[in-house]
Structures are given as C-alpha cells and as structure tokens.
Amino acid sequence: MSNEPKPSDLAPRPPGLTFPTDFPIKVMGRRVDEFAQAIVEVVQAHAPDFDPSTLEMRTSKDGNYLSVTATIRATSREQLDELYRALTSHPLVKVVL
C-alpha cells in the first residue's frame, strides 16, 4: 500500500466562509403566537446587531407551521455554531437550516 496521496486528496477544496458575512438561518416550528419573537430573542443574543424588521416569515400550506429566516452579519464560525446550538435546543423549534 502506497503512502502517496490519492488524486482526490489533491483536489482543491471549496473555500470556507469568509467572515464577516451575511448568513441566512431558516428556522421552522409550530405556528404559535410566541414563535417569531422567541427566535428573534435567540438570534439577538448571538447577533446583537440583528434587525428584527428584516425577519422573513412564511406559513406552511396547511397553516400549522411557520418558517422564519433571519439573515445575520456573522463574524465567526464559533458564533454560528453557538447560534445553531441555541436554536436547535429551543423547545418551539423543529428544524434549523
């Protein structure tokens, strides 16, 4: 067995994120009155400059679920990881993309 790198190891990898960058985060949950406000509060705890008026909302076809998209000015991978952890652990959140 050779220790030479395989051609796939030599292929250029796609570049990672360059910070700061605008980064959309889509969050879905049951359509309840407090959902959007709860998401805004979590997002602002990790991205204090997030403007809640820019939150995009869409109701599911049957009206049972709500998706919100918050576009933040991400400053680091750590910030995004912490925000994703906070959102995925929130009891009103079903999915974070």
List descriptors.
alpha+beta, globular, Alpha-Beta Plaits, 29% strand, single chain, four-stranded antiparallel beta sheet, 97 residues
For the termini, the CA-CA separation is 41 Å
How many β-strand runs?
4
Q: In the residues, how many domains can be counted?
A: 1
Unreliably modeled segments: none
Query: So how many helices?
Result: 3
* CATH superfamily (homologous) name: ACT domain
CATH architecture: 2-Layer Sandwich
Radius of gyration: 18 Å
Principal-axis shape equals globular
**The CATH top-level class label:** Alpha Beta
Account of the protein in words:
With 97 residues, the protein is α+β, with helices and mostly antiparallel strands. Helices cover 29% and strands 29% of the residues. It has a single domain, classed as ACT domain (Alpha-Beta Plaits), CATH 3.30.70. The protein is built from three helices and four strands. The chain has a four-stranded antiparallel β-sheet, with helices on one face. β2 and β3 (65-74) form a beta hairpin. The longest helix has 12 residues, at 35-46. It starts with 6 loop residues before the first helix and ends with a strand.
In short:
With 97 residues, the protein is of the alpha+beta class.
